[in-house]
Amino acid sequence: MNNSILLKIENLKVWFEIRKNILTPPMYVKAVDGISFDLKKGESISLVGESGSGKTTLGRTILRLYEPTDGNIIFEDKDITKLDFKSLSWYRKETGFIQQDPFGALAPHFTIYKILEEPLLINKIGTPAERRDMILKALEEVKLTPVSDFIGKYPHMLSGGQMQRVVIARALIMRPKLVIADEPVSMLDASVRIEILDLLRDLQEKHHMSMIYITHDLATVRAFTNWIFIMYAGNLVERAKTEELIENPLHPYTKALLEAIPDPDPENRRRMRKVPEGEPPNLINPPTGCRFHPRCQYVMDICKEAIPEDIEVEKEHWVRCWLYSKG
Amino acid sequence: MREKETVLRLNNFSLTYKTQKGPLQAVRNVSFELKEGETLAIVGESGCGKSSLARGILRLFPRNLEKVSGEIYMDGQEVLSMKEEDFRKNVRWTKISMVFQGAMNSLNPILKTIQQISEPLIIHMGMDKISAYNRAKELLSLVGIPESFAERYPFELSGGMKQRVVIAMALVTHPKVVILDEPTSALDVITQANIMNLLKLLKKELNLSYIFITHDIATASELADNIAVMYAGEIVEISPSEVFYSKPAHGYTMMLLDSVPTLKTTKKLKSIPGSPPSLINPPTGCRFHPRCQYVMDICKKKEPPMFQKGENHYAKCYIGESHE
User: Fold this and answer.
1) CA distance, residue B129 to nearest chain A CA (Å)
2) How far apart are CA A235 and CA A54, in angstroms?
3) Which of A46, A50, A194 to mutate to test the interface with B (most CBs of B within 10 A)?
4) How far apart are the CA of B242 and the nearest CA of chain A, in angstroms?
5) How far apart are CA A52 and CA B200, in angstroms?
6) How far off is chain A from B309, nearest CA to CA, in Å?
7) A88: which residues sit within 8 A by CB, 6+ positions away?
8) Mind listing the pLDDT tens digit for each residue in B18-59?
9) B323: pLDDT confidence band, cut at 50, 70 and 90?
10) Which long-range contacts (CB under 8 A, 24 or more apart) does B253-261 make?
11) Please, are residues B107 and B115 in contact by the beta-carbon 8 Å criterion?
C-alpha cells in the first residue's frame, strides 16, 4: 500500500467574527481552534463529535468552502490555505463532497443525467459520447440500475436513499483523491443507512480514495473507517485506529461518548448511564485550559489552567489530556 | 405482590385516512395492554404508522381522517366513543399525555419556561396562576432544571434543557400514562443518555407507564419492558424485551435485529432490501413477504393470524408453525 501523506493539517483555526454593533470590538466563535493531523492516501477517518463541536466547519474548511483563520492545509505537498478562488479549480477536481441533506443538494429542475454531467462540463471533460459513458458507469457504480430508468428522472421522483446515491455518484464522478462525507446518512431511514455506508466504503476502497466521514454517531463507524478522531468544542481530543479507540478509549470525553451509546440489551432499562451532566461549552468564550474540564470527573488543577499537549500515548494513539502527561 | 393494574388497553384499534388515491389504513387492528409502571416500546421504520397510532390514542386525528374503529380503555373506561369535550376535559393530558416528536422546537418562543409548564394546569385543570406556578416549580426540580431557568425563554435554553421542559409539560397534570414519540431523536448522544436517565428516574418515582415510540432498536432497550414491532400499520410481534432481543419470532424482527449497528460486537450488518409497502394497496398475505428472506409459499397467499410463540409472546408469522 502506498503510505504517502495526502493531506496535512497544521494548527488549523477557523474563527467566525460576530459583531453586536460597529462600536464594540468584534468577538469570535472559535469553531475550529488549533487542529493538526495527517491523512494518508487510501485511508479513511471518522470525525466524531456532538453538534457544535466544529466537525462540519473543519470538513468544509478542508474543502476550502470556508476561509481558514490561521494554520495550513497541505494537499499533496501543495499549500492550498491561501489560494484564491481561481487557483483552486484544480483542487475542486481532486476533492468530492457528500452533503448531509440529499433533498437540498440536488437541483430540482435538473434531470439526474444533467446533475451528473454538470461537473464534467465545468471541467471540460470528454466528448458528449464519452461523458454519457462516464455518467452511465457512475450510476451503475452506485447501483441505480437499470440506469436507463434513472437518467431521465428528476430528483423529486426518487426516494431519499436513491437521491443520496446520486449525490455520491456526483461527488465521485471526477475520481477525486479526497472525499468528505458530512453525515451522509443521518437524514435517511435506518434500514437504508447501512446500504449507503457499505456502498460508500466499497467505492472508497475500490478507487483507493481517502475519506473523511463526519458523524455524530459512533455506533455506525466501527466497520467503516480506519481511524476515529474525536472532536470536542473545536479541538481534536483523541485520535486512534478504529479498534484501538473503541477497545481502549483514553480521554474522559471519549469514554463518556462510548458509555452513552446503547447496545440492544434488555438489561439497559435497569441501570443508569454514567455520563457527564451538562452540554458542550459556548465557543465564543470557551473554558480555559482543557475545554472539557467543567464536565470532567477526573478534573485536576492543571486542567483549568493550561491546554493539554497532543501526546502519543501508544503507537498511533494520540490524546490531549493531562491525565496522560508525563511531565 | 399485588397484581399490576392495566392502565391502558387497545382492542382492534384501526385508523383510516382519506387520500387522493383512495383510503389508506395507517393503523390496522392494533391491540395491546399496558400495565401500571411498565413501558411498551413501539418500534418500526418511518411510515409504519407508529406516530399515527400514538396520536390516535390521544384522539388527535388529522383532518383527512376517514374512519376510526375499535376500543380504547383507560382505567377500564372506554374513551374512544366519548364526547370530544368530555375526553378533552377528563382524559387528554390529565390521564394520558404525550411528548411529541421534535416538541422542543415547538415551544412557544415568547413564553418563559415557567409559563410554558404551567399552561396545561391553567387550561386543563382551571388552576389559578399562583398555585400553577408553584406546581410548575416542583416539576422543574423534578426534571432537573435549575430554578433560575424558570424565567428564561426557549432561545436561552440548550437542546437538552428544552427537552426537559417538554417532559415537565407532559407530567405537570399527574398523568398515569405518557406517550414518548422519539423523545431523544434530535439530541446528541450524551444528552440523549442524560434524558434517558431522567425518564428512568421519573418512571420509578411516579410509577408512570410509558408508550415509547422509536425507530432505534438499541434505544428501545433503554426503557422497554415489552416491545411491539410495527410494520405497514400492524403490530406484527409483541414480546417481553428479554425475549425480543434473544428469540425474535417474526421474519421482520429477525432482519431488523441483524441491521442494528452495535459498538461492542463486530458482526456484519445486513440491511433489509426494498422499502415498506404502500398502505393503499398492501401486499396480499403477510405484508412483509416481498422483503422477507424466510418467505414461504403460504406467506404470499394467506394472511398469518397472531400466533402465540411463548409466554406473553405473540407474532404474526408462519415461521416455526405447522400449517397446511
Assistant:
1) 31
2) 8
3) A194
4) 5
5) 27
6) 19
7) A64, A80
8) 989 889 999 999 999 999 999 999 999 888 899 999 999 999
9) low
10) B253/B229, B253/B315, B254/B294, B255/B291, B255/B292, B255/B293, B256/A191, B256/B43, B256/B217, B256/B229, B257/A264, B257/B217, B259/A190, B259/A191, B259/A194, B260/A264, B260/B217, B260/B218, B261/A194, B261/A219, B261/A220, B261/A222
11) no
B-chain residues near A272 (CB < 8 A): 197, 200-201
- Distance, CA of A284 to CA of B164 (rounded, Å): 25
pLDDT band at A282 (very low <50, low <70, confident <90, very high): confident
What type of residue sits at position B197?
N
Is the pLDDT assigned to residue B324 strictly greater than 70?
A: no
- Torsions phi, psi for B117 (to 5 deg): -75, -35
State whether A275 and B197 contact (CB < 8 Å).
yes
Q: How much of chain B, in percent, has pLDDT values that exceed 90? A: 69
User: Using one digit for the tens of pLDDT, what is the confidence trace for A5-19?
Assistant: 999 999 999 999 988
Q: What is the mean pLDDT of residues A202-218?
A: 92
Class of domain A5-324: alpha beta
Given the C-alpha cell 483549568, which residue does it identify?
A: A304
**Helix/strand/coil for B301:** helix
Asked if CATH classification 1.10.3720.10 holds for the domain at B6-95+175-315, the reply, yes or no, is no
Measured between CB atoms, which of A260, A269, A277 is closest to B223?
A269
Contact at 8 Å (CB) between B287 and B276? Answer: no
Whether A297 contacts chain B with CB within 8 A: no
Say what the pTM is.
0.87
Closest partner CB to B271 (pick from A50, A194, A267): A194
Average pLDDT over residues B99-106: 85
| B17 to B45, B133, B271, B279: CA distances (angstroms) | 19, 40, 30, 10
Domain ranges of chain B: 6-95+175-315
Distances (CA, A) of A18 to A26, A285, B163: 6, 13, 28
Average pLDDT over residues A77-86: 90
